[in-house]
Design brief:
The complex is a heterodimer of chains A (168) and B (336). By secondary structure, chain A is an all-alpha fold. In chain A, 71% of the residues lie in helices and 0% in strands. Chain B has a 5-stranded mixed beta sheet. Classes of the chains: A mainly alpha (168), B alpha+beta (336). The interface between A and B is large, with 55 and 43 residues.
């Protein structure tokens, strides 16, 4: 996996406790990662705010500058997803956000009908634009299996969208 | 639906994932260009990726960066594991070497050292064996002390300067004045760490620095960018001070590039790490002065790295106007 040079430099500065570097890193990835949480969990996103903070701070602390093996966002997402998966075991894993417009409501409802693993896969691929190698590393799944699973997930999601539309 | 449409729709997921080979991809695009039914299908299949992105829009309801910074400050920062592992590696190597030296050198034999216990007798039991083991330990300790002694003694020397490193850019009226100045400095009893046509780096004690300053003050046609200092006011330290001089002769093209690099956050170590990682050849490398011999390609990479570097200002030479020839170019960076 290609590691962007600016990430290595930023993390080296974070390791020297330069707060500006931490801010820049969060400006780069914070909103996108939070967008993922909100899409996957809706109202329940609030439950995992501490996990979001933990994932960022742990990754910053544990990453060895200039010795990174994967991009920062991959490590953050792996920590976050594993945390959420453990926390939400056997619980209803999504709830509609207040004030959503109709279009977003339909997408959200269709998405929440997907199994948790498939929901994560679809969001990583089609919302966050991670490539298959990165997703395989985050979810610990072979790339070949991932490709087939993505197609099936997209078709299932499409089916749910049509069902929700019909219902509305 | 025609057979071609069926075929195209089967391949659509791979098409959307950019997984098709170029010829299949061209074939697909040709068909999509003329078939409305397949166009509708592909749009239907791909539109949800836009919808998913729409779903992600919005702001984090709290200040994530401040919270993370607080979290980081409350935790104890772990030591750099890489440096630690290098340290451990160096220590282990030193111990193994010392052990090897002590046990196998015929000159360093301790009393009874030719009576090593056999493998089955590793644990000393009798008093004689215990004494033997203690003697071996003592020998290792004294060997280690010898190895570290020169470093300990260095701290006892006095009369050195504390402000280190010091750097002056000298403007010299003509090449003769430059040669004369160099020869004067070379006569002084000090260690030269690095020398080139336009740079001199040396370590000096307070006493000799006083003479260096006198030579610079009294040399005709030599001016410096910074005022020359009163050496007597400098505090003293145990390690020798480092001084670098850069000679400029106005009117002639510089043979070396010399940049004064101002790092806003004093974070030049990051750039240093990066250049090391890129495998740049360092001719001289100290905390604040790096001298590199770069090929034309490497010079371009350096310019790019400098442009990307946050809060970084170069002064003195326009970096873009200098081109390295095939023999390469010498670049010195003085971190301020």
């Amino acid at each position: 996996m290609k590691i962007p040079a600016h990430e290595e430099l930023l993390l080296a500065r974070c390791a020297r406790r330069e707060n500006d570097a931490v801010k820049t890193l969060i400006e780069l990835y914070g909103e996108r990662v939070y967008g993922f949480i909100r899409s996957a969990l809706g109202l329940r996103a609030e439950l995992v705010h501490p996990l979001l903070i933990k994932s960022f701070s742990e990754t910053i602390q544990e990453t060895q500058p200039f010795n990174m093996t994967e991009p920062f966002r991959v490590t953050v997402m792996r920590k976050l997803i594993h945390g959420i998966t453990n926390q939400l075991k056997n619980k209803d894993s999504s709830a509609t956000e207040k004030g959503m417009d109709l279009q977003r409501m339909i997408v959200f409802e269709a998405l929440s009908r997907l199994a948790w693993n498939r929901r994560v896969l679809l969001l990583l691929r089609d919302q966050m634009d991670f490539d298959f190698e990165e997703i395989a590393s985050i979810l610990s799944v072979p790339i070949k299996q991932l490709r087939a699973e993505t197609q099936e997930t997209r078709l299932e999601f499409r089916k749910h969208i049509e069902e929700v539309l019909r219902k509305k | 639906m025609s057979t071609q449409c069926e075929d195209v729709q089967k391949k659509l997921p791979d098409f959307l994932n950019d997984l098709l080979k170029e010829d299949s991809r061209t074939e697909m695009r040709d068909h999509l260009g003329i078939c409305k039914a397949c166009q509708d299908h592909v749009l239907r299949l791909s539109s949800f990726t836009t919808d998913l992105k729409l779903l992600a829009q919005g702001r984090i309801p709290f200040d994530l960066s401040t919270t993370v910074i607080t979290q980081l400050q409350s935790k104890k920062i772990e030591p750099d594991r890489r440096s630690f592992s290098i340290f451990v590696w160096v220590m282990v190597t030193a111990l193994v070497t010392a052990g090897f030296f002590i046990f196998f050198s015929p000159l360093k034999k301790t009393p009874n050292s030719d009576q090593f216990p056999s493998k089955s007798e590793n644990v000393p039991t009798s008093e004689t064996e215990q004494l033997h083991a203690l003697q071996q330990l003592e020998a290792i300790n004294s060997q280690l002390e010898k190895m570290t002694a020169p470093q300990k003694k260095e701290g006892k020397t006095s009369g050195q300067i504390a402000l280190s490193p010091l750097h002056w850019d000298l403007r010299i009226e003509n090449p003769e004045a430059k040669d004369f100045l160099r020869s004067q400095l070379k006569r002084l009893p000090m260690n030269f760490d690095y020398e080139s046509e336009e740079t001199m780096v040396f370590r000096t004690s307070k006493e000799i620095l006083r003479e260096v300053m006198n030579i610079l003050k009294t040399s005709a046609g030599v001016t410096s960018d910074l005022p020359l200092i009163n050496v007597d006011q400098l505090p003293e330290t145990s390690t020798p001070g480092q001084v670098s001089l850069f000679f400029r002769t106005p009117g002639s093209l510089p043979k070396e590039m010399h940049w004064h690099a101002k790092f806003e956050l004093r974070n030049h170590y990051i750039l240093h790490e990066r250049l090391k990682e890129l495998g740049f050849p360092f001719l001289y490398d100290s905390d604040e002065l790096w001298i590199l011999q770069l090929s034309p390609d490497q010079l371009e990479v350096l310019r790019k790295e400098l442009r990307l570097f946050p809060g970084f200002i170069l002064r003195d030479q326009d970096s873009e106007s200098i081109v390295a020839d095939n023999g390469g170019i010498r670049v010195s960076l003085h971190a301020e």
